[in-house]
Fold this protein.
Amino acid sequence: MKEIRNYLNKEFNAFELTFNSAVESKVSLLDKIMRYIVKSKGKQLRPMFVLLSAQLCGDVTEMTYRAASLIELLHTATLVHDDVVDDADRRRGFFSINALWKNKIAVLVGDYLLSKGLLLSLSNKDFHILEIISNAVKEMSEGELLQVEKARKLDITEDIYFEIIRGKTASLISAACGAGAYSGCLNDEKTALMQQFGEKVGLAFQIKDDLFDYGKADVGKPTGNDIKEKKMTLPIIYTLNHCDKSTKNKIIHIFQHAEKQKHEINYIIQTVTEIGGIRYAEDKMNTIIDEAYLILDKFPDIEAKKYMKKLVEYTIQRKY
């Protein structure tokens, strides 16, 4: 990651200037919260996808920096809202906005971030960028709501799982790559290719994130959290399709409980591991990344391509 940031150092500094300027407010409370958000920023992977996609397809432009800022504003807004929905009090090792300023303010802050991103694009007439990212917002909402709907019935198939993560996670990385590509070359064909590439990477990214639920390392969220929240991820879906009837009934019975005991969660994690659910998910993730690389191979072998591959490798090898 450090190597990628060093390569993008000049472009990333310009992006951060655009982003920081976009979140400024004359309301003292908002300005204080915005400064806190900037201070507690995460890895900012999505802006990196924007910048590298622009380089792959042409040049980094002012539109590129605005696209990267819009992506990061949208992503940050969704995280603020997610923390309210999940009643989470921490994010990236910092207190969440809702923990410090309560839910009402957190919801309004998320709305503010989204509106600032939209205005950034509209005021500069970046209409196609706005269209790409607005479609991602729609798909993210649909993906999250589909997951909630299916969690109630516990009837998620592998196809539905991929439909969910294509919306809730892959759509934004796809939009980041597409917006970056378009900002760099204004070419619809290259933009569409980069969107396809980004979707593949986003699918693999979410599978990796789901796999953290079955590990023991400190990954920024409690192990077994998806199980507690009745989220049927790929390892558990595979396990339910390949275990005997009594094991399946036991797992479903545990899932249906509102409160799950630690030994019950450990039983599910152990069963998923033994039956091969983790190995299956890892294999699926690697297959999807291979498909992403086939798309990337359609672009010239320039330095940006090398660093894009490094960024993809990071998304599936990261420890948290």
DSSP finds 15 helices and two strands in the chain. The first strand starts at residue 90 and ends at 91. Residues 216-222 have pLDDT under 50 and may be disordered. Residues 158-185 form the longest helix (28 residues).
